Input
Amino acid sequence: MDKRPFINKEKLEAVCAEHPTPFYLYDEAEIRRRARALNQAFSWNPGFKEYFAVKATPNPWIVSILAEEGCGCDCATGTELALAEACGVTGADIMLSSNDTPDEDYRQASGLGAIINLDSLDMVGCLERALGGELPKMVCCRVNPGGNFEAANGIIGNPQDAKFGMTREQLKEAFSRLVALGVEDFGIHAFLASNTQVDDYYPRLARLLFEEAVRLRDKLGVHVGLIDLSGGIGVDYRPEDPAADIAAIGEGVRQAYEDVLVAAGMGDVKICSELGRWMLAPAGALVTRVIHEKVTYKDYLGVDACAANLMRPAIYDAYHHITVMGKEDEPAPRVYNVVGRLCENNDQFAHDRMLPETTIGDLLFIHDAGAHGFSMGYNYNGSLRSAELLLREDGSVQRIRRAETRADYFATFDDDPRFSSLAQK
Output
């Protein structure tokens, strides 16, 4: 399938005249479309809730758009909890899914009325200590069944290698301890694979968790009211990749729900998801301009963005499709490496990529960067984080985060007189 930018060159050049590259651009219409498609796919479950993984795109404008579409927030830290609260997301519309969690985050989540998801058995005691023994009536726990996780076409994950979650026996012990502390309602959560390219991941995971819920109900007499399927549904980064069929995924989970939970008399269980990548990656792009070309043993296109703006290719060797704006329909006979300016050889957005003839000044649209893009940015080599822009449904473009300045970079040296003047610039 051909990948096309969600904006044309003329419109993008007009945006660049006001907002210099590099910057992130998000498509509001696509964000809303995906949220509605997900909610429709799981509409058979009256309690369904998408807890958007804030870590993927922690921008209040994005969070607020998703909240308007009925989504909550999956938070991993106190800072993300604060962002959710500022966007008007509170109470059970927040899920704290963290690991190695400090006590103050538990207290903050409890104060907001958020659902707390415990990652390990020892966190039962940590939660009791943090909250002074006054635990919420509902607590969720993350399970890791170990081994390999298989889909129809083979192994798609190795839970035993992940740091997240507790064993099935530890989950049972955690529930027992929580019952003794007054907890009345329970949730089960698991994250077993990332960026899956198969439609049966969620249904297979759901069946595993549904069976676990029935087992715990039968052994402990507890009420399991929530099953959180977490994230893991992937996106088609490469043009030839299959796109997830969210309707088919929802139907697969429904069938497992009927087979296991309804059959066991547990048809009141609410289903949750925590999708970040699937919700936002295709709705965002990194826009950058070619500023240099160097030909040595390879042909290098130097751009004004770098791994500090989008580090997925550097740390995961991840593929992001690149469109040379205005040349979408031209042949791609040239082989380029697209690189940034960091003093690191892995600062390359593409290796040996076939592209149209590209020259200095061309705009590049780096696709599927709307999740885990800006949020993973950093300041290596004194790089400054870029602006974030939103393409509104009416066609207007709004800045939703300004670019960092040197004043931002030096701001934390506020007690050092050598930097006081720089911090003001």
